Amino acid sequence: VNRNENTMIKAIMIVNTSGKARLVKFYERKTESQQQALIREVYALISKRTDVMCNFLEADKLEHWGGKTGDTKIIYRHYATLYFIFVVDGSESELGILDLIQTFVETLDKCFRNVCELDLVFHVDKVHYILDETIMGGMVLETRLAEITDVIAQQRKQEASDNPMSAAKGDFKNFFGEFGR
What we know:
The chain is an alpha+beta fold and 181 residues long. It has helices at residues 3-6, 32-47, 94-112, 117-122, 124-134, 145-162, 164-169; strands at residues 9-16, 21-26, 56-58, 72-79, 82-89, 135-136, 139-140.
């Protein structure tokens, strides 16, 4: 079975308002040059749109994701200085993906206490961990915020118990820092 045929989510990009990619994860095989071209093309499409416009559009015009009309969609949300962009299969529910983006952003907010662009730059491994708890291989694993944050809290506790030096130093903010529910 071709992996690309089963992928619901084709790519996730977080790009700042200047067009600089802060997180990129492709779930379909693309060369580095194709990925860079797609990031530029997607950014060019959405950066021209105002905040009052619809948050999803057809991706038929994208050179490397072109195909049949309605095959691929771009669904995004603009928060402060960041665009959270999901490139998905044409059969995906736009509102479902918007809800997934909202859940992802809320999880980041909870883990980083009001996430900002610098959190994505300096804690890219942690952001990928959160993303992998939500989506893996282009398939949605979890959409409940409480479940995702519980797993992250368990990871934080495991890290604290695995590293006795952090307890000796009094550093319990080892993975995401403290966050409450």
